[in-house]
Amino acid sequence: MTGLMLLIFAGLLILALPVGYALIISSGIAVITVGGSPSVVAIVKLFQPTQSFPLLAIPFFILSGNIMMGGVLGKKLIEFATAIVGRFHGGLGQVGVVGSTIFGGVSGSAVAEASALGTMLIPWQKKEGYPPAFGAASIAAASTIAGLIPPSIALILYATVSSQSIAALFLAGVLPGLMLCTGFMLVCYFSGRLRNFPRLSEVLTVRRVLKISIAALPALVMPIFIVVLLRAGIATPTEVSVVAVAYGLLVSGLLYRDLTMQRIYQALVGTCVTTGVVMLVIMASNLVGYVLVVENVPATVAQWVMETLKSPVLVIVMMNFIMLFVGMFLDLPAAILLLAPTFVAMGNSIGMDPVQLGVMMTINLSIGLFTPPVGTTLFITAAISREPVGRIVKELLPFYAVAVTVLLLFSYVPALTVY
């Protein structure tokens, strides 16, 4: 049954069918034909995950991000990032990295970040004399930090599949997100210094910097607000997501006074589209998970890996290679939902903490978002900058080095995630 499902799935991907549909068709055929189960079983398994209360957090966090980033606040965040790092070497590249980190604390979506920040920053970088390919590369890489900074959609999905605490995963995701931010900023700094990128000539006074910082404060405190509420046990992730929507409405409506019915409508439409895509993959992955569980695939694979490799170090190396390969072809949500059940079993067999595994998976699969041939953020920024993908990939090489270094640290040092 599993073999037939994988064969059909691979064929449908080659035919360029969207991942969600390919998963539903391949697993559905496998269940009904080889599995011998009635079609109602497949339908029930598709419907089942939509009744999960924790998953309600996803549309609400997406909505809060759309509300807050669709107006003045997005510009205030860019002004803040520019005031902090814009005057240094590679300043406009660093603005994109800092902006991505802050945006990640609001949107939780790398694809949304790449589109929003790329549209704002890449034309500005080109105008100031930066190589367009470098600007596209910095945004493509930095936007993936959203997968780690709370409220990360990827970590919510992993928590759902692995039955782990969303609060613990959110807290564990902050440090790698900040480390990637620091590493990417250093790449921009040394690239700007060695290649003599133009520097912003505007000199900001302390008073001006303070004014800009206060204007951006509502977005800056958002991830702290989320982690504190969750860690203190004041609210569940779903309740926090609803509070985040109310917070976004209040900030946009009362503080910035830019909330209109048109903006609310656009935020709702964007949320519905994004949620629909994510939920389709979740539904399909649940049916795939049913096929794997029926045939005991996760436990069998975990046992085979331990008997073959024996060393936990080699097991982690193998998991990382598999994830890097899969991440090159599948988007982050689909890859997490498909790999997590098997990898959690493998992690348990070597004594790896599930929270550490979740962070490792998210970092690893996020690299796939800016890696050919299907890197989503890579192709978004390539379209915005109108640069060849090959030229952008060349500029991405130092960013890959930073991301892989951070990945290795969090793969082999449990103390960085388990505290």
UniProtKB/TrEMBL annotation:
<feature type="domain" description="TRAP C4-dicarboxylate transport system permease DctM subunit">
    <location>
        <begin position="6"/>
        <end position="416"/>
    </location>
</feature>
<comment type="function">
    <text>Part of the tripartite ATP-independent periplasmic (TRAP) transport system.</text>
</comment>
<keyword id="KW-0472">Membrane</keyword>
<comment type="subunit">
    <text>The complex comprises the extracytoplasmic solute receptor protein and the two transmembrane proteins.</text>
</comment>
<feature type="transmembrane region" description="Helical">
    <location>
        <begin position="313"/>
        <end position="340"/>
    </location>
</feature>
<feature type="transmembrane region" description="Helical">
    <location>
        <begin position="397"/>
        <end position="418"/>
    </location>
</feature>
<protein>
    <recommendedName>
        <fullName>TRAP transporter large permease protein</fullName>
    </recommendedName>
</protein>
<feature type="transmembrane region" description="Helical">
    <location>
        <begin position="268"/>
        <end position="293"/>
    </location>
</feature>
<keyword id="KW-1133">Transmembrane helix</keyword>
<comment type="similarity">
    <text>Belongs to the TRAP transporter large permease family.</text>
</comment>
<dbReference type="InterPro" id="IPR004681">
    <property type="entry name" value="TRAP_DctM"/>
</dbReference>
<feature type="transmembrane region" description="Helical">
    <location>
        <begin position="361"/>
        <end position="385"/>
    </location>
</feature>
<feature type="transmembrane region" description="Helical">
    <location>
        <begin position="240"/>
        <end position="256"/>
    </location>
</feature>
<dbReference type="Pfam" id="PF06808">
    <property type="entry name" value="DctM"/>
</dbReference>
<feature type="transmembrane region" description="Helical">
    <location>
        <begin position="133"/>
        <end position="160"/>
    </location>
</feature>
<keyword id="KW-1003">Cell membrane</keyword>
<keyword id="KW-0997">Cell inner membrane</keyword>
<keyword id="KW-0813">Transport</keyword>
<feature type="transmembrane region" description="Helical">
    <location>
        <begin position="212"/>
        <end position="234"/>
    </location>
</feature>
<feature type="transmembrane region" description="Helical">
    <location>
        <begin position="166"/>
        <end position="191"/>
    </location>
</feature>
<keyword id="KW-0812">Transmembrane</keyword>
<feature type="transmembrane region" description="Helical">
    <location>
        <begin position="53"/>
        <end position="73"/>
    </location>
</feature>
<dbReference type="InterPro" id="IPR010656">
    <property type="entry name" value="DctM"/>
</dbReference>
